[in-house]
């Protein structure tokens, strides 16, 4: 039986190969193939230590095949985002384990974003354009739309399921449950959408203000900004004389200097603040509403105990699917994650149902 570490390496090798097979840019495809080979070598090392035949190394898990299916349907940028997040977690765990065991870090523990960047920089035929394209592509999936969809749906399902069960407990599943469920769906989705809009908009305004301030500083105090830029390069290990020359050359072009200072000094990437706040709000609304509608559906066609049981069953199925989907990022066992999600969601609903029952009896009495 393959260990979890071995299966992770097998899956990573498989997914990087799939990324390479579906990448139009030859340079980036080459990077992905190299990453696939690196992961396969890790898998072979694990297999050797565990006395497992290397023939098993071609068998990806169901999780990896599901991610591949998502890539075929929605595009492989989604797969890259999920894969990178998983590898970051694994790398952090490896580093922590080595530190606890007081073992020297070998460098292989670092996350794949750094490894990929290193591979790109080492290739003689890779231009800055290629590197920038890869970095922007990774940033575009860094937040991971799949994770946002799963968590947004989970928020809607758990909160509205609990609300519906609370009202059903107070009314025995009769009149008012459907209305409360729809009201909860709309209230929650609108709240999430507004919160997302405010978050995106405020971040954009903050960054834009900081960027404008940086431009003002370049125009009013170019010498001071040249010193700051020089110090940034010195901190990166560039000799002082060379750093000064680089800073002086960059300051000849104010727009270029502004771009670099914004990125290096403020840590802001201008491309990341161009997203639409309205689009983010609509996306958040839709995701929350998708989960929130699940426990309401049975009450559209029935009432009483039958609707309560159907709502609980449908919500349990939804919770299990959400838990299973979460394993795309965590790599945990599907059944464990799925049933854990069901347990927590049903427990929350049971509490609100009980409270609603007590309130209903008190009012009715």
Structurally, how many domains make up the residues? Answer: 3
Low-confidence stretches: 119-136, 138-144
Mean pLDDT: 76
Oligomer: single chain
Structural category = mainly alpha
Our count of helices gives: 14
The percentage helix is over 70%
Radius of gyration from CA coordinates: 26 Å
Largest sheet: none
Would you write up a description of this structure?
The chain has 365 residues and is mainly alpha-helical. It has 3 domains: 4-142; 145-189 and 276-364; 204-273, no CATH class. It is built from 14 helices and no strands. Helix 5 (112-122) packs antiparallel against helix 6 (128-142).
How are the SSEs ordered, and which strands pair?
Blueprint: H1 4-21, H2 26-49, H3 62-74, H4 76-100, H5 112-122, H6 128-142, H7 145-171, H8 177-220, H9 222-235, H10 240-250, H11 254-264, H12 277-292, H13 304-330, H14 334-364
Helix pairs in contact: 1-2, 1-3, 1-4, 2-5, 3-4, 4-6, 5-6, 7-8, 7-12, 7-13, 7-14, 8-9, 8-11, 8-12, 9-10, 13-14
Quick gist of this model?
This protein has 365 residues and is mainly α. 79% of the residues lie in helices and 0% in strands.
């Amino acid at each position: 039986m393959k260990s979890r570490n071995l299966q992770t390496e097998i899956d990573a090798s498989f997914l990087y190969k799939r990324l390479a097979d579906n990448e139009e840019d030859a340079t980036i495809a080459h990077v992905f193939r190299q990453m696939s080979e690196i992961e396969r070598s890790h898998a072979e090392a694990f297999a050797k230590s565990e006395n497992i035949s290397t023939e098993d190394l071609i068998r990806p898990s169901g999780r990896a095949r599901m991610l591949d299916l998502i890539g075929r349907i929605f595009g492989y940028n989604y797969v890259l985002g999920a894969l990178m997040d998983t590898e970051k977690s694994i790398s952090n765990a490896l580093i922590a384990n080595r530190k606890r065991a007081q073992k020297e870090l070998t460098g292989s523990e670092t996350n794949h974003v750094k490894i990929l960047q290193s591979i790109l920089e080492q290739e003689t035929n890779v231009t800055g354009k290629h590197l920038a394209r890869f970095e922007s592509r990774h940033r575009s999936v860094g937040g991971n739309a799949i994770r946002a969809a799963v968590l947004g749906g989970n928020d809607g399902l758990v909160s509205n399921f609990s609300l519906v069960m609370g009202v059903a407990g107070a009314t025995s599943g009769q009149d008012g449950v459907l209305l409360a469920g729809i009201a909860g769906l709309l209230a929650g989705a609108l709240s999430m959408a507004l919160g997302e809009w405010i978050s995106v908009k405020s971040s954009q305004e903050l960054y834009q203000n900081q960027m404008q301030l940086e431009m003002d500083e370049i125009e009013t105090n170019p010498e001071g900004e040249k010193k700051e830029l020089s110090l940034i390069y010195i901190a990166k290990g560039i000799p002082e004389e060379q750093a000064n020359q680089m800073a002086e050359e960059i300051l000849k072009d104010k727009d270029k200097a502004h771009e670099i200072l914004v990125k290096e000094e403020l840590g802001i990437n201008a491309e990341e603040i161009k997203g639409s706040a309205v689009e983010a709000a609509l996306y958040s609304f839709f995701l929350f509403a998708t989960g929130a509608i699940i426990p309401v559906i049975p009450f559209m066609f029935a009432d009483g105990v039958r609707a309560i049981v159907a709502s609980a069953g449908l919500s349990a199925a939804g919770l299990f699917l959400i838990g299973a989907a979460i394993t795309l990022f965590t790599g945990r066992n599907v059944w464990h994650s799925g049933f854990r999600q069901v347990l927590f969601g049903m427990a929350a609903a049971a509490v609100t149902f009980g409270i609603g029952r007590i309130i209903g009896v008190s009012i009715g009495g």
